[in-house]
Design goal:
Elements (H helix, E strand, L loop, with lengths): L2 H26 L5 H14 L9 H22 L1
Helix pairs in contact: 1-2, 1-3, 2-3
């Protein structure tokens, strides 16, 4: 298998992990619109676009997204 094929497979696996993350967080943050959850994941993911090592990206993106989504959810509750 060439490097290009391995990169393609890794990218597909990463996309799958982010799709699962999106669904999981949408179930947790039910008071927020699922599009908002998706947008925050995409925003955090783009911050790491130049990362050379991708193994930890889902964890890093999830932590950052959760911080922001927690903040947004708390703001909604205070209203």
């Amino acid at each position: 298998m060439g490097a290009h094929t391995m990169d393609s497979i890794a990218s597909e696996q990463l996309d799958t992990q982010f799709t699962h993350l999106e669904h999981r967080l949408a179930r947790v943050y039910t008071t927020l619109d699922s599009a908002l959850v998706r947008d925050h994941i995409a925003r955090e993911r783009s911050r790491f676009a130049g990362a050379r090592i991708h193994a930890y990206l889902p964890i890093l993106v999830e932590r950052a997204a959760r911080l922001e989504l927690d903040r947004l959810q708390a703001a909604l509750r205070r209203r």
